[in-house]
Amino acid sequence: MKNRPTRIQTGRPPGRERGVVLLFALIAVLIMMVGAVALVRSFNSSLLNTGSLAFKKDLVHRNEAAIARVIAMAKEPTNLANPTISAARYLTMNYSPQILAYNHQGIPNLLLMNDADFNSSGLANSSHDIVITGDDVRLRYVIDRQCDRDGAPSLDNCVTGNPGIPGGRADTPIKAENASSGGSGALTVVPVYRLSIRATGPKGTLAFYQTTFTLQ
Prior knowledge:
Layout: H1 18-74, H2 83-86, E1 95-96, H3 115-120, E2 130-132, E3 137-145, E4 193-200, E5 206-213
Parallel strand pairs: 1-3
Antiparallel strand pairs: 2-3, 3-4, 4-5
Region (Disordered): 161-181
Keywords: Membrane, Transmembrane, Transmembrane helix
Transmembrane segments: 20-40
C-alpha cells in the first residue's frame, strides 16, 4: 500500500485577502480621480487667465491706434482746433469743454453708462464708437477739456500746457517774453484735453485708458 503525499498549506487562504486589496485599489483610484479633477480645473483657470491677458494686451495695441486717430481728428481745423467749436459741447467728437464728472478711479461716469444713458446724456453718442468688427473690439471715447467752465479758456479756469506756467493759475505772472500776438503780456492759453477710452473686447474683456494732450 502506497502512502499519498500530504499537502501542507501555508499562510492565509487567498480568498480572505481579495476584499482588502480591492478596497485599497478603490481608495487609490478615488485619490487619483480627485487629483485629476483638481489638475484639470487648475489648467482651465490658467488658460482662462492667459487668454484674458492676451485679450488685454491686444486691447492696449488697439487703444494706442485709437488715441492717435482721435487726437489727429481733434487737431483738424474743422474740429477742436477751431476755438469756436472747442468753447462749447461738440457732440461729433463726444467733447465737453469742461471737466466731466468721474469716479474715484478717474474714469468719466459717461464711460460707465449703458448705451441708452450714454446716448441720452447730450454729450456723446455711441455711433461715434470705433468698431473693429472682424476682431469684435469696440472703442468708446470721450474728450473733456480740463477747465471748470465752457467758453474761451483762460489761465484762471483751465489746466494749461503753457511752458513756464505750471497749473495755469491766475496768480502766475504773464511775462512779456511769452507774448504771442504782438503786445506785452499777450498770451495764447493752451488748455489741456483729456481723452478717455473704454475698450470692450472678446468675451466681455473690458479695459480703460486715458491720456492728455494739447492742440499745439
